[in-house]
Amino acid sequence: MADTVRFLTERVDNRTLTHVITGNPIMVMAAIENPIYDQAMRAAELVVPDGTGVVWAASRVGQPVAERVAGYDLMHELLRVGETRGWRVFLLGTSQEVIEETAKRLKQQYPRITIAGYRNGFFGPDQDDEVIAQVRAAQPDLLFVARSVETQEPWLSQHKFALDVPIMMGVGGSFDVIAGVVKRAPVVFQRLRLEWFYRLMKQPTRYKRMLALPKFAVKVMRDKENVTKHRPTT
């Protein structure tokens, strides 16, 4: 985490465009099955191991990582640094009610951060230019995006050069947690690496998405050393 925050701080200081993906098994499986998602992940300037499954897989294939870098925690670490450096933040995604509450709470928690703008995530391709213009006009240092798994990273990858923000990062359901709509898993679940199980208990409708987890585990164990070899999706 410390190395990641230091690296991204330097990227902001140098105004270097960076798409950060907080990778988890669901994203990896999506990339295997979807060429557009695969391309988005491979084009990202930084992919960090968000999911516990990714940390396990990295160790399994002989390329261990130091620790899990959870997207929710990384976002807050960047906001803490941003407070000391006067960074500007743009929030994009989820519903209008949630995004407004998220902006309000983040401003209370990080009073020296500038919330340069926010917008809900309910827009289609015909509104992309409008959204991009709104983000660019705000001149943020950090852009956090909370949209659906299928949309979030491909959208950022497609438009990152037009957006021209030093740090762009998909944050999934983080805004819902910040706004108090959804509770984050208790610390005991986090320590046991069972946050996914807690979310499934609280939101049983996620079960279809969670089916990717056993598929991921089987693939890692079955493919072994071939896991790290790139085989283009079709």
Automatic annotation (TrEMBL):
<dbReference type="Pfam" id="PF03808">
    <property type="entry name" value="Glyco_tran_WecG"/>
</dbReference>
<dbReference type="InterPro" id="IPR004629">
    <property type="entry name" value="WecG_TagA_CpsF"/>
</dbReference>
<keyword id="KW-0328">Glycosyltransferase</keyword>
<keyword id="KW-0808">Transferase</keyword>
<protein>
    <submittedName>
        <fullName>WecB/TagA/CpsF family glycosyltransferase</fullName>
    </submittedName>
</protein>
